[in-house]
């Protein structure tokens, strides 16, 4: 079990104040890592970091702003000797925003360009920039693990039927941009794994399935019925996989996409 220990390691989590981001931080901290809680709300980041323990750090992190990321790297290195783990978790997922767009606007034919660009900026450019800034420091020192949070929808097309209510009304469409960006994240993972393999920087992606988070009952029922394990994920269901990818337990694993989806993509 010592293979899973992260004592003495510094782990950066982007989008750390989100539902899964907090769980990622908790898992890494429990495994012994010093966690850098990175998100847009600096005060909330510091508060959550302190709840994990005195050694953890909370900083404002804009994944689309390279100068901000460079400043963050410098600040992190003042507290830690190295950057060892990067979890690229920050993402925009419009289907989780209480279906704010509605059926007409979320349809592909009408999907707004500004919404498409916003997701591209965070979900792809953000992963690129964080990997460039923090991953380059890992490559410089000759070790590290980057974990890119992808999605089942990076591998398969969205099943739009699960967004229909019991009367068969299409309440929402899964947007085109989320699958586009998550598919890009998976292939960017392969690029970085090949590029930095000789620097002993491992790069893998983790593709989670849908997480139950107070969605409408019809959606939870539809999603669960289509999943072999018969339920949506709980927020903590990805913690073991994350620690595995961060630790020496996966020392000979790079360029891989670890799928944890209750069997969603198996059918």
Describe the fold and architecture.
There is one protein chain. With 267 residues, the chain is α/β, with parallel strands linked by helices. The chain has one domain: 3-Layer(aba) Sandwich (Rossmann fold), CATH 3.40.50.720. It is 41% helix and 13% strand. It contains 8 helices and 7 strands; from the N terminus they run βαβαβαβααβαβααβ. Strand 5, helix 6 and strand 6 form a beta-alpha-beta unit. It is globular and about 60 Å long.
Write the layout of secondary structure elements.
Layout: E1 10-13, H1 19-30, E2 34-39, H2 42-52, E3 57-60, H3 66-79, E4 85-88, H4 102-106, H5 113-141, E5 144-149, H6 177-196, E6 201-208, H7 217-226, H8 239-246, E7 257-260
Parallel strand pairs: 1-2, 1-4, 2-3, 4-5, 5-6, 6-7
The tally of structural domains comes to 1
Number of helices: 8
The total of beta strands comes to 7
Helix content: 40-55%
Unreliable runs, pLDDT <50, ≥5 residues?
A: none
How large, in whole angstroms, is the Cα Rg?
18 Å
Q: CA-to-CA gap between the ends? A: 33 Å
Question: CATH first level: which class?
Answer: Alpha Beta
What is the CATH architecture term?
3-Layer(aba) Sandwich
């Amino acid at each position: 079990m010592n293979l899973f220990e992260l004592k003495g390691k510094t782990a950066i989590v982007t989008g750390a104040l989100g539902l899964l981001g907090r769980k990622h931080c908790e898992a890494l901290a429990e495994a012994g890592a010093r966690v850098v809680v990175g998100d847009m709300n600096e005060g909330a980041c510091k508060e959550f970091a302190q709840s994990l323990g005195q050694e953890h750090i909370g900083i404002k992190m804009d994944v689309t702003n390279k100068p901000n990321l460079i400043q963050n790297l410098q600040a992190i290195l003042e507290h830690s000797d190295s950057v060892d783990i990067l979890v690229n978790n920050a993402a925009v997922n419009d289907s989780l925003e209480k279906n704010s767009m509605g059926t007409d606007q979320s349809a592909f034919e009408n999907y707004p360009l500004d919404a498409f660009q916003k997701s591209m900026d965070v979900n792809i450019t953000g992963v690129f920039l964080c990997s460039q800034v923090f991953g380059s420091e890992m490559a410089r020192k000759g070790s590290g693990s980057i974990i890119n949070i992808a999605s089942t929808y990076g591998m398969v097309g969205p099943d739009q039927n699960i967004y229909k209510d019991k009367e068969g009304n299409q309440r929402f469409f899964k947007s085109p941009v989320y699958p586009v960006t998550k598919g890009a994240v998976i292939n960017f993972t392969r690029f970085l794994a090949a590029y930095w393999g000789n620097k002993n920087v491992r790069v893998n992606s983790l593709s989670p399935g849908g997480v139950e988070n107070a969605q409408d009952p019809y959606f939870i029922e539809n999603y669960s019925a289509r999943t072999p394990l018969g339920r949506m994920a709980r927020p903590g269901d990805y913690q073991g996989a994350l620690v595995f990818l961060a630790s020496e337990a996966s020392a000979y694993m790079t360029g891989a996409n670890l799928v944890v989806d209750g069997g969603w993509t198996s059918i």
